[in-house]
Design a protein that fits this description.
By secondary structure, the chain is α/β, with parallel strands linked by helices. It folds into two domains: about 5-115 and about 225-310, Periplasmic binding protein-like II (D-Maltodextrin-Binding Protein, domain 2), CATH 3.40.190; about 120-210, D-Maltodextrin-Binding Protein, domain 2 (3-Layer(aba) Sandwich). Helices cover about 40% and strands about 20% of the residues. It has 13 helices and eleven strands. It starts with a helix and ends in a 20-residue tail after the last helix. About 50% of the residues are buried.
Length: about 325
């Protein structure tokens, strides 16, 4: 191949890689590429909201890259978007990342996002005062086998109480956390396994009682509540691009740690725009007490969580997550 043609082919390959090789990324005639970052409208995902507000991805990736953001109600829809190329990176609970990895999905955890934030609450009038009272009651989580679901079911299984899915008597329902208040108010569910800020919303707006606090639920102080993920394909083809994604995420995390009040304001605005629900300062302040923000990843906690997912029959084979976590971008 002539040198000129070889150089052109190299440029074309680079442009395709920058586009993320997905359906939502493209290169225009002017050379502008796109990337879409996914996240949830939960306080565990504040680093994405801050990065969006402060323009950290734009700073790292440059003005010739168009940055898009897409929110998701649960990990299943997020992972579908990552697998189809609709998004190239983003924040998701470790549960969906692990479950999809064990099923052969091309996903890697490239940084931590947050820790904590899962609270178990009982509806006022449900008759639930203690953990033992939850037996035979209905509970709601975002999805079957999601991070919050595994945390709750692990805690309950250790006390001899399980769901109908594995022969017990707890009745499982699923739904977006933003709908939990309505579910409590109509009496359609007794217990909510709620990520923040929705746990604090339930406390403030419905008088819900905390039965298992965030620091007592299984893996509550060690497991990442959210992780930054991307595809192994993108990591292999353009590690420098992925490094810039992680750098932007690290900048956002540092901003949260150094400017908590400004980060709270950004959070309130972003969740209002996404869910049309405006959180009070009291709710956000309460949520912040249950959550920590870090880009570090506890690999041992993730493996222990995966082992529990297998024991609870969310996974058909005992997992090995030694290749799921790629720490080269945060080391």
């Amino acid at each position: 191949m002539k040198k000129g043609l070889l150089f052109f082919a190299m440029l074309l390959t680079a442009a395709l890689v920058l586009a993320g090789c997905g359906s939502s990324s493209s290169s225009s005639a002017s050379g502008t590429s796109e990337i879409t970052i996914g996240y949830f409208p939960n306080i565990n995902h504040v680093p994405a909201m801050v990065a969006k507000s402060e323009g950290y991805y734009q700073e790292q990736l440059g003005d010739d890259v168009t940055i898009n953001y897409k929110t998701f109600p649960d990990g299943s829809s997020f992972m579908d978007a990552l697998k189809t190329g609709e998004i190239q990176a983003g924040l998701v609970g470790p549960g969906p990342a692990m479950n999809n990895y064990t099923n052969g999905a091309d996903v890697n955890i490239i940084a931590g996002g947050s820790t904590g934030g899962t609270v178990i609450l009982a509806r006022e009038g449900s008759g639930i005062e203690t953990v033992e009272d939850i037996a035979g009651k209905s509970y709601i989580t975002p999805r079957v086998g999601c991070t919050h679901d595994v945390q709750f079911e692990t805690y309950m299984e250790e006390r001899g109480i399980t769901s109908q899915r594995i022969g017990g008597d707890m009745i499982h329902q699923t739904g977006p956390p933003a709908t939990y208040q309505a579910m409590f108010e109509t009496g359609k569910v007794d217990v909510a396994v709620a990520p923040e800020p929705w746990a604090s919303v339930l406390q403030q707006n419905t008088g819900a009682k905390v039965i298992i606090p965030a620091d007592e639920v299984s893996f509550g102080t060690t497991l990442p509540a959210s992780v930054l993920v991307s595809s192994g394909k993108l990591i292999e083809e353009n590690p420098e691009f992925v490094q810039k994604i992680v750098n932007a995420h690290k900048d956002a995390t540092k901003f949260i740690q150094e400017n908590p009040e400004e980060a709270k304001t950004i959070t309130i605005k972003d969740i209002k725009e996404t869910t049309d629900q405006e959180l009070s300062q009291e709710v956000v302040d309460g949520s912040w007490e249950n959550i920590g923000f870090t880009y570090e990843v506890d690999a041992e906690a993730i493996q222990a969580f995966g082992d529990s997912s297998y024991n609870l029959e969310f996974l058909t084979e005992k997992p090995d997550f030694s290749d799921l976590i790629d720490t080269q971008f945060i080391d």
